[in-house]
Specification:
60% helix; mainly alpha
Length: 210
């Protein structure tokens, strides 16, 4: 895919959705961090249902730590892998209090040092809470990047590096959200909705299947 085609793709995505953001509901970097940890192998809808109950009761490291692991599980038990997530969140809250003055760190290596936080989660937090032009590659972005040929790669890290290289700088901050939403609602896994896709004529998927 050439530079001009990529630029036009992101121009259209921006025109359709000028200010994209996460569908996770949060009101602070800490709430976002907890929501993203919970979202691993779970839908944003299911996470929002749980955090709507949790955050009014506990939305600081101290408050969640006071709930304890078992207390936290009561609020997140509807989410997949809730046992391990509860354990990681409690450990993360302890580290935030002990090492970061109860604040969510902004740097990649500090975020990845938190239990339950991998590269993708750290990239989401850095982008959405702190405004860094990072691109967190989830299953939706991996699929869209490969299917459209915007940034093909065999691994998540390869796709991330190619997106950071190929996405025009002016679109890089919001590219993560546009691609996730596109993969979630249009370029879906089993049967992409090509007929209703605003970038269908620019996408290189159809040429591979004809």
């Amino acid at each position: 895919m050439n530079k001009a085609r990529r630029h036009e793709i992101f121009t259209r995505l921006k025109n359709e959705n000028p200010e994209p953001t996460t569908e996770l509901v949060y009101s602070s970097p800490f709430e976002l961090l907890i929501a993203v940890i919970l979202s691993a192998q779970a839908t944003d809808v299911s996470v929002n249902k749980a955090t709507t109950r949790l955050f009014p009761i506990a939305n600081t490291p101290e408050a969640i730590l006071a709930l304890g692991e078992e207390g936290l599980k009561k609020y997140i038990k509807t989410i997949g892998l809730f046992n391990s997530k509860a354990k990681n969140i409690i450990k993360t809250c302890k580290l935030l209090i002990e090492q970061h003055d109860s604040q969510v760190p902004e740097h990649q290596h500090e975020l990845e040092a938190l239990p339950g936080v991998g590269r993708k989660t750290a990239n989401v937090v850095r982008n959405t809470a702190f405004g860094h032009a990072t691109i967190a590659v989830d299953t939706h972005i991996f699929r869209v990047a490969n299917r459209t040929n915007i940034a093909p790669g065999k691994t998540v890290l390869e796709v991330e590096k190619k997106l950071l290289k190929f996405v025009p700088k002016e679109f890089r901050h919001d590219a993560h959200h546009w691609l996730i939403l596109h993969g979630r609602y249009t370029c879906i896994a089993r049967k992409p909705r090509c007929g209703s896709c605003i970038i269908e004529d620019l996408c290189e998927y159809k040429h591979k299947t004809e």
